[in-house]
Amino acid sequence: MHGARPTIGDVARAAGVSKGTVSLAYSGKRPVAEETRRRVFAAAESLRWTASSSAQALATSRTSTIGLVIARRPEIIATDTFFPRFIAGCEAVLAEAGMGLMLNVVTDEDAETAAYERYAAGRVDGVILLDVKQGDRRPDLVRELGLTAVMLTAEAPHEDDPVDTPVVYTEDAAAVGELVDLLVGAGHTSIAHVSGPLRYVHAAARRDAFVDAMTHHGLRPDRIVEGDFTAASGRDATAALVDRADRPSAIVYANDVMAIAGLSYARSSGLRVPEDLSVTGFDDSELSAHLSPGLTSVSTGADVRGAVAARTLLAALGGDARRPVLVDGTVVVRRGSIAPPSRH
Amino acid sequence: MHGARPTIGDVARAAGVSKGTVSLAYSGKRPVAEETRRRVFAAAESLRWTASSSAQALATSRTSTIGLVIARRPEIIATDTFFPRFIAGCEAVLAEAGMGLMLNVVTDEDAETAAYERYAAGRVDGVILLDVKQGDRRPDLVRELGLTAVMLTAEAPHEDDPVDTPVVYTEDAAAVGELVDLLVGAGHTSIAHVSGPLRYVHAAARRDAFVDAMTHHGLRPDRIVEGDFTAASGRDATAALVDRADRPSAIVYANDVMAIAGLSYARSSGLRVPEDLSVTGFDDSELSAHLSPGLTSVSTGADVRGAVAARTLLAALGGDARRPVLVDGTVVVRRGSIAPPSRH
DNA sequence: TTCGATGCGCAAACCGGTTTGAACAGTGAG
DNA sequence: CTCACTGTTCAAACCGGTTTGCGCATCGAA
């Protein structure tokens, strides 16, 4: 039926030139006479030829693909809207550069390592490292495997950290500080925090920022519950906090999903939001904006982070190792979920 | 520093055999003496050799990668948790088979076509088609491009449809029918529907199912609002439905996000849920289970669909063209968001 | 007319695997 | 002792591109 895909040889023959010339006509790495170039393009067009990317990859040892391994529990992947937004942001940049994105979702550490090893076998040119953990071994792993990498973090890297992996970071601490300021400004003194899993650097950073901000206002940051970013944990943590006489008048959650689940729980147990309980989220999801009341959150531009990470990785692949890049645009979005505390 | 990656030639030399023997030892396509095989494996191990996937791809014209193009507006990707769940499901199957997943997120049709064309240039072996639309041209496109494909739909393919693309489908209609049954059984007679964009076959199928179910109960399906799966549209559609004297006593939403936003809107405009308004979602997201009241929804096992789609595609790649596959497991999950209607 | 410079394209090597026809050693049968 | 046969390995071709040394033609200057 439809014959095999045409090769560069077919195009060369049709245009009456050699394979090399066809290649050069496309890459422009050496001048080709205008007239010849036209013949080549015409031939390619009529044969509907496109270079085979496998052949190209083999010849150039560049795959035009970058890899992303997501290592999270299914419940979180299924809930948190960060990933799809992040990926969409990456894609926009990658597509423009003609690059592809290879995705792997893994659930245990062995599978994670295996994924990077497969990547290193010439499937991708570089990788983006998400969800950096305390003592994360991936930077070493990827270096060992010879992969170019970019790492996402939630705070500026320490000066003395021997960072050889390019870093793209946001400054979550400032945003958390702002949230606390807002609450304190509204009159709250009893503020709790539901964090993410503290083994993640970003979750720990937000928790630390909460502690600092509270301390700064002379308040005791003594109600901190560790959640795990799932709706279930948000609900449970909230239950633990509000089902008692000395419940807080406000809760700062480490992500929107936990905040929404918490808000919903509080409401159904008789509390009015925001009158009896103010809540804030983090990572502003589309849903949060359209709830009633809207959820006060921190818009961190997941898509922008994806775009910047992709751009930085492309630069690194081009040999342009750059200093840590700050992704700006972290902004507190105030909505109806915050109000002055009622007396109770 | 770290020398270039070892090649099969290095392994051959180290083991004192030829390249071909190394290849055979690994593929097993021809017998290799046990003793030789051991030497080869030992050499490969000590050199830390792994076959270059580009070279393999070129030689075998198989990339061990499948492609997935997601063509949706950013707001939807950012909200709907279907995609990450679906992808996680695919991955589980693909990883097991040593295959990779290439992902592309596009926003317009040209980019979509371009993505498939890049795929066809030897980047992937096959593709999964999501979100089939009325008169979708992708089946033709991928056939023309010589890509193996699997298509996901929400109803059994019509007998007379000349389906040459393998289909994996769910039976959404039955589930929608059950939802309506539940509501009618609880005493509701004024039930509205907020659909998805009707150009999508699955959204239209759910709408049709709603119409059929209502008609079956002798009710007039005259309050249907077309949404677009976003939280914003869920809120707006709900506003249009409930901010009037003859508001419905129940609303069937085509996905959870719209339902959650709608529920939230209804509550904040003074309606009690479920006492004054019962609501149901679709595609059961983790969040829905942990809201209070929990959202009655239809669990369609996005991850299972992903897994089945991946498995079917792998089979198709293996030349095993099979009849349409039904993904079972669509089940109505009843939670607190349904109650008998109150008088008003 | 001769000579170097310049522009252009060809042919061949190469990337790192897979595949296959043929060679070779060892074995048992005739 | 020869021959057919089996089991094992080798060498070379091939996949479809990219890269580069070299030759050829053309042209202006000496």
Order of helices and strands of chain A: HHHHEHHEHEHEEHEHEHEHEHEHEE
- Domain count of chain A: the total is 3
This entry's quaternary arrangement is: homodimer
Question: Spans of chain A with pLDDT under 50 lasting ≥5 residues?
Answer: none
Largest sheet of chain A: 6 strands, parallel
Total helical segments of chain A: 14
Helix/sheet category of chain A: alpha/beta
Radius of gyration of chain A: 26 Å
Residue-averaged pLDDT of chain A, rounded? 92
Indicate the CATH architecture of the largest domain in chain A. Answer: 3-Layer(aba) Sandwich
For the record, what is the CATH homologous superfamily label of the largest domain in chain A? Response regulator
What is the name of the CATH topology of the largest domain in chain A?
Answer: Rossmann fold
Key attributes of the depicted protein:
homodimer; 344 residues; alpha/beta; Rossmann fold; 3 domains; 14 helices; 15% strand; elongated; DNA-binding
Quick recap of the structure?
Chain A has 14 helices and 12 strands.
Note the topology.
Two copies of one chain form a homodimer.
Chain A: H1 8-15, H2 19-27, H3 34-47, H4 53-60, E1 65-71, H5 74-77, H6 82-96, E2 100-106, H7 109-120, E3 126-129, H8 138-145, E4 148-153, E5 167-169, H9 172-185, E6 191-195, H10 201-216, E7 224-226, H11 231-242, E8 250-253, H12 256-268, E9 278-280, H13 286-289, E10 297-299, H14 302-317, E11 325-326, E12 331-333
Parallel strand pairs in A: 1-2, 1-3, 3-4, 4-5, 5-11, 6-7, 6-8, 8-9
Antiparallel strand pairs in A: 10-12
Helix pairs in contact in A: 1-2, 1-3, 2-3, 6-14, 7-8, 9-10, 11-12
The first copy, chain A, binds a DNA duplex (30 and 30 nucleotides) through helix 2 and helix 4.
